[in-house]
Amino acid sequence: MRLLIISLALACAVAHADGQLRGASEVPARLGPDARAAIQRLIDSARVAGLPTAPLADKAAEGVLKGADDRRVLSAVQTLLHQLIDARDILGRTDDVSLLGATASALQAGVPVAELRRLAAASRGSMSAADSRALAGALVTLVDLVAKRVPPAAASASIEELLRRHATEEQFVVLRGEVERDILGGQSPEAALAARTRAQVKALDALSPSDRTLPRRPPPG
Amino acid sequence: MGRSGSSWFADAVRPVVTRGDARGYHPVEMTDAVLARLTRDGDESAFATLVDRHAGACLRFATRMLGTLEDAEEVTQDTFWRAHRALARYDDQLSFRTWLMSILINRCRTALLHRQRRTARVVVDDDAVEHATVPSTASDTELRDALERAVAQLEAGQREAFLLKHVELLSYDEMSGATGVGVSALKMRVQRACERLQDLLEDDRHA
Amino acid sequence: MRDPRVHDDELPEPLDRAVSLIRDEPPLRAEWRAAVLAGLPTHEIAPPPTPRRQWSLSPFAAIAAGIVCALAGAGATLIAVNAHVLATVAPLVTPTAMASASLHGPSSVRFALVAPTAVHVSIVGDFNRWNPAALPLKRSADGRTWEIEVPLLPGRYTYAFVVDGRLARDPVAPEAASDDFGIANSVVLVKGS
Questions:
Q1: Most CB atoms closer than 10 Å: which of A188, B23, B177, C182?
Q2: Under an 8 A CB cutoff, do B182 and A90 touch?
């Protein structure tokens, strides 16, 4: 019986590991040979350019699953490659695949390049891991807000305000959830965002710098 | 003047004498930046000169984005009014035309969005044809018409990028500034537009 | 199929000739010009307003998505978002990343969907190469909720559920940007510790 449990557990572990097929950049077999070759060339270009290749293979797989024809899939992969190139130009040299992906997604959503440069600059402290995560969270939130019909200019102004105050990734998650609930409760998207942003800004401003990072100074004497 | 190498063509063909009211005349050596400053200081004839210099290009772009001269005149007029209101924010370091085009591009996008399901069609404007340079051969006319038809069929993002690159002759950096789209994505759009146009012209030849 | 390499600035020949024919500017109609100048305010230019960002959500994305939807619908196998399915889903806690196993190792992320009438639910996304067979969800004890825990390395993933053969967004997760394929995905950001 114990053996059965152990082997089941192992099987589950293997299944989970199998579930996360990253690293390999295989192009789906269901595409025609021309499309597959073209996509492979795009993947090779990405590799040569020092850009992540897995997102391109993922995009191709996604297209196949969604029933798009070869031309559409190739077009989407090509578009993504160009978005990644532009994302890296906006962010500066970075290996952070999540950040590149989030930036590419923002470009896809129509956020102007100048706007994204501003947001990237607003989050730049030491460009620590925490800053990168905050920016990635901010961009994911921005794209979501736009999808919820918050006017894009208002959404991005809000995000920028919070980034400038060093809002964390968690705070963006909270903001998104609150705004969503307010919208479901009948508020206009823009009003909901404005109110929740004000509240977060107030909370962030209330934290004086010494509360945040500096260790306590010993009293004199 | 802040314009990149590929724009020399546009500079070369811009008329020296402005059309219309002679009171709007300023020597062509007076740069757009200077005219903008004069306008800010209250010289309305300076703005008239800016209109004369740039309206043609704006109408050229807008006509092909929206399909009719009438719609193009409406958005171009709106663009100049907005530009006039926003002159205080115009940064002398930028090319005035690029700045103006960025306003126009937005106006065109909004107009297309509000257009509902109307397909853009190019109406051959008789007046425009009469005043334009007369093509040297009949086949030129056909080619021109075929291209106009083909451009009208491009998807809006590709059409916009193609016109900015190959008709308005902006650099990719200028285009990125004016459209908000990344340089790489723009290059892709232009490339696709060219491919599609070639296909459409091919089909047209065989039709 | 053409090779999607990026071209340089030159136009290929037949196109080059044709484009040179369309570079002339339309004439300025006198009445139009007069109307533009007459419409300008006569008072002094207003002082610069507080910076106001103005950009419209790309209408081209919307148009393109519409075209894609039409095309995708023609050759569809597994596509339509089932509004009925979404209606049965109640908001749940956003996918939670549990305490990570190690500094750089995977975190266990729980995904869940309320779909009481579904027969089969799986999850597809960047983490399993969009393979609908790879990660089936299990029905919980109450019979209404389907769930799975997926070990994920820190990163950003887009994903969706497949409910009885139809794709559905995760209603509690942020939406990804409007899709090339006409169907929006959900996004999860998994942090390292």
A1: C182
A2: yes
pLDDT at B58 over 60: yes
Angle, helices C13-20 vs B183-206, to 10°: value is 90
Amino acid occupying residue B92: D
CA angle A113, A80, A53 (to 5 degrees): 120
Write a three-state SS string for chain A: CHHHHHHHHHHHHHHHHHHCCCCCCCCCCCCCHHHHHHHHHHHHHHHHCCCCCHHHHHHHHHHHHCCCCHHHHHHHHHHHHHHHHHHHHHHCCCCCHHHHHHHHHHHHCCCCHHHHHHHHHHHCCCCCHHHHHHHHHHHHHHHHHHHCCCCHHHHHHHHHHHHHCCCCHHHHHHHHHHHHHHHHCCCCHHHHHHHHHHHHHHHHHHCCHHHHCCCCCCCCC
On whether the CB atoms of residues C132 and C78 are closer than 8 A, the answer is yes
- Does residue B25 or residue C38 have the better pLDDT? C38
d(CA B83, CA C41): 12
| pLDDT(A87) > 70 | yes
d(CA B133, CA B145): 14
Residue A55 has pLDDT above 70, yes or no: yes
Contact call for C33 and B20, based on CB within 8 A: yes
Question: pLDDT tens digits, residue range A89-101?
Answer: 999 888 899 999 9
Q: Give the residue numbers in A contacting B (CB under 8 Å), as ranges.
A: 78-79, 81-83, 85-87, 89-90, 107, 110-115
What pLDDT, on the 0 to 100 scale, is given for residue C102?
42
Query: Which pLDDT value is given to residue A25?
Result: 61
Alpha-carbon dihedral sign for residues B165, B171, B173, B174? negative
The DSSP secondary-structure symbol of C96 reads E
Chain C contacts in chain B segment 50-69 (CB below 8 A): 51-52, 55-57, 59-60, 63-64, 69
The pTM of this model reads: 0.74
Q: Test A112 with B180 for CB contact under 8 angstroms.
A: yes
